[in-house]
Amino acid sequence: MNTYKSNSLILLMLFLGFATFVSCKQEKKEAQQVETIQETGISDSLKWSERMALTLMKHHPEAYQIDDKTEPKWDYVHGLVLTSFEQLYKKTGNEQYFNYIKGYADDCIDSTGAIPSYKFKDYNIDMIEAGNILFNLYNTTKEEKYLKAMQLLRKQLDEHPRTSEGGFWHKKRYPSQMWLDGLYMGEPFYARYTVEYENGKNLDDVAKQFELIQKHALDSKTGLLYHGWDESKAMDWADKQTGCSPNFWSRSLGWYAMALVDVLDYFPQEHPKQKELVQYLNQLAVALTKVQDTSGLWYQVTDKGDKGGNYLEASGSAMFAYAFAKGANKGYLPAEYKDVANKAFEGLTRDLIKIGENGEVIITQACAVAGLGGNPYRDGSFEYYVNERKKDNDPKATGPFILAALELNK
């Protein structure tokens, strides 16, 4: 071996050794950070966003464990919470938040880009939502499996069953139905994908989903939108004239409000549908502010106040706080909606949050789950919504809480 080759080999070995040392040192540092949280607790000097994020990491060391899962599962609740972690990472630059997101994606997606726990043929719009975390993962790492997974989710939207006017069914097993939840589950991913990979060619189709839900689920008296709409009017919960479910549910309205502010990130101001979406957001903001409680929070059944059994609910209130704060920050909503959002956030931290003995942040009075139809049958009645179980730190509350805290810089 000549001297040049020998020196090159030595330099390469030194470089590889240094790179391994740096990598190990970083991993050790991140492990120590998590260990410190476990041992010393969570400081109340941190902002609410980090206090909640560290609480979740303390209780769920692997992100797939969120919502008490025991094995990796591709699910919208993980996507929602990890979207908030993505925003937190952008704000703080703390690598542990990025690694928490990446850990979930790597646990759920194999080397080919397949998602073993995801059932394509279920045509469940909920399953699109977690795809939102893949854009930045792919842009940062350039690992092809993330792109392949995004392409798979985008393919679902191409084949997804639709109403006669082109609205995505909520799920294959809920034929002809659009739910407010579904707008958040599918449209932010669809909007971003078509802008980044299709030159925006399907933005009109994204807007159409909002147009159809406004056309069919909007109550002209209150300005609120019903949880679900059945084009066939075949479901027992559906009004035989309108096809709408019988009540307004705050979390479904929260999904819708968040969907609007998030898809608007991808609609250029000059796009003909942009002003229409902003108008929908403003109409909804006016309607929701009318039924906001003096505490700053919203009731589980949005317009029924303290009627027997109704309660001030955390997830919907956090979603509204986020949507109003972001809407005001981005200029979609008048500036006074930042005050509405602050009032909501103050209500959450004052009335619905407990602090654990190690500084953990615990959101109470969060509805664990609610839907329409199915087995056992969910009739959408007032009694149904107020009697569904509650769960502390339900991910549908913790994710929006972090997002709201970031928008409000709390």
Automatic annotation (TrEMBL):
GO molecular function, one term: hydrolase activity
Entry keyword annotation includes Lipid metabolism: no
Domain of life (superkingdom): Bacteria
Keywords: Hydrolase
PROSITE patterns according to UniProt: PROKAR_LIPOPROTEIN
Pfam families: Glyco_hydro_88
InterPro entries: 6-hairpin_glycosidase_sf (IPR008928), 6hp_glycosidase-like_sf (IPR012341), Glyco_hydro_88 (IPR010905), PolySaccharide_Degr_Enz (IPR052043)
GO terms under biological process: carbohydrate metabolic process
Name this protein carries in UniProt: Unsaturated rhamnogalacturonyl hydrolase
